[in-house]
User: Fold this.
Amino acid sequence: MSRRSPRLEDSGYYGIDREPLISYRETLHRIFRRRKINRHIQPEAIETSNNRNGNRHFIFLILPLCFGLAYSIITLNSNFLNPGVLESPISPIINTKDPTARCKEMEERVRELQNELLRLKQEINSHFLTADSLPNFALQSLGAKVVLHLSSEAHQTKETFTTILGIPLMRPPVHQRTVIQGHSPLPGRCWAFAGGKGHLLITLSHRVTISHVTLEHISKNVTPTGTITSAPKEFTIYGMENLDDKGTHLGTFLYDQNGDPVQTFKTSDNKQGFFNYIKLQVESNWGHPVYSCLYGFRVHGKLAE
Assistant:
């Protein structure tokens, strides 16, 4: 039996059975252990909080994209289901219920486009005139003639044409009228005159004002040597009312040996008049020392009123 304290007995600490009525047993609270545990748990809590915040940001980013995608799908579906009135790239077509009215409108629009195309074509032709699109008043079939006694003589070449009983026959020269016959230029079929200078006087088919002249030769691509040294280089045009007239200078021009075979030149606007004759004066050729060749010559203009 444990020792009892008289003081505790007086204060009522013991009961009838002499056992203590009041217990002073202390309960041990593990404060430091709990703090240690909290230290290990705290990073996990922080990580969980960060994950939750990240999830919230991700949701805020995804929601606008979802709404935008849904709106796009709805818009596309509505366009496919109700495309509306289709417009032509040429002109808007009124969506009328009467097919006949629509056909008439399309026909009128096509007619307008055809007229506009024709107008543009005429405007282009007015800026880029070609010899084939202009009348030729130096054409033999229309009445034009060569004034032989006032033109240079044809050059006689030394090439043989054929032989009879061993006697060589010379090739006859090409006549001056070949220049105004309007044939397509063929290699060798041209009027040749001696040297680099020569002239040709033509009686025009009508009394006209001269606006353009055209000089024809063959292309160097169709010649055996690949050159056209006998082609005229510089030439001058004179308009004449009669044979005794000194002539009105209408221009001096340069035929380009590297250009088109058929070249058209515009005469001077300051020298307008009505002429019955025209004189072609060749001043030089492209280097041939013996002769020059002229394949075709045309005169363009308008009839005198």
